[in-house]
Design goal:
The structure is a single chain. This protein is α/β, with parallel strands linked by helices. The chain has 7 helices and 9 strands, in the order ααβββααβαβαββββα. Helix 3 packs parallel to helix 7. About 30% of the residues have low confidence.
């Protein structure tokens, strides 16, 4: 008889994150109805039995899942299921609420950056800006997105545009992220998520905090918002190319 295979070790940190996420879902239970989960056998009394370790944790390997993350999170949170990368979680993105209007002035901001100074919208006046919000440094999706922007940086700057990344991560983490992947563009620290909220790109999770949703905004030299990319999570591989194509269209208009 073969000895039982040892179960993979899960760090206390990963266990704590799973517990916090479960508490957040339970705390938000009043926002959704059990019938929405009935087809999946996940009524409110059974949410605790959901296999939360099917979410990707930085410190724990995922297991096979019986219910896709997209289906589960859309059922649980409806339009509120977004991506939370700073915790090492990858949750499907839904459409965003509270987006500023296209062709209206882009919300102003002034945030600390990995360049050792604050960046504001006024600093970017006179050039196009690719302002992209992302959940967290070093997560798989955010790394792919940043590397793709870096590969297309010369093309983007050829349109007189600057790339600027925004997340709730600290400046120290931004510096490490920039160094490890050789990023040539500034990364801003939106601690508390106020700027993310102004751009309709904030996700607030009870007991955990506020994070930036994965969305990209094109701002013209006059400071007007000209285009918003939502649903970026589903198109990470081609997103930078989409940005280049849209800049080409807008700058020729």
């Amino acid at each position: 008889k073969k000895p039982p295979r040892p179960r993979p070790r899960v760090s206390p940190h990963a266990t704590m994150l799973r517990t916090l996420l479960l508490l957040a879902i339970l705390a938000s239970a009043s926002a959704f109805q059990a019938p929405a989960l009935a087809p999946y056998g996940l009524g409110t009394s059974r949410v605790a039995s959901c296999r939360l370790n099917s979410l990707r944790m930085d410190s724990g390997a995922p297991e096979a899942m019986e219910l896709s993350r997209r289906t589960f999170f859309k059922s649980v949170a409806g339009a509120g299921a977004l991506t939370v990368g700073s915790l090492g979680l990858e949750v499907p993105q839904s459409f965003a609420d509270g987006l500023p209007g296209v062709n209206s002035p882009a919300p102003d901001f002034s945030l600390p950056s990995n360049r050792g100074k604050n960046f504001s919208l006024k600093d970017l006046a006179g050039k196009w800006t690719v302002l992209y919000f992302y959940p967290g440094d070093f997560t798989s999706g955010c790394t792919i997105e940043a590397q793709n922007f870096e590969r297309n940086a010369a093309k983007i700057r050829g349109y007189g545009a600057e790339i600027v990344g925004v997340s709730v991560d600290s400046i120290e983490k931004h510096l490490d992220f920039e160094k490890q992947y050789g990023l040539s563009f500034p990364l801003l620290s939106d601690n508390g998520g106020k700027v993310s909220e102004a751009y309709g790109s904030a996700l607030k999770i009870p007991f955990i905090g506020t994070f930036s949703n994965r969305q990209t905004y094109l701002i013209d030299p006059e400071g007007k918002l000209r285009w918003v990319f939502t649903g970026v999570q589903d198109r990470l591989a081609q997103h930078a190319d989409e940005v280049v194509a849209k800049l080409d269209e807008l700058t020729k208009a």
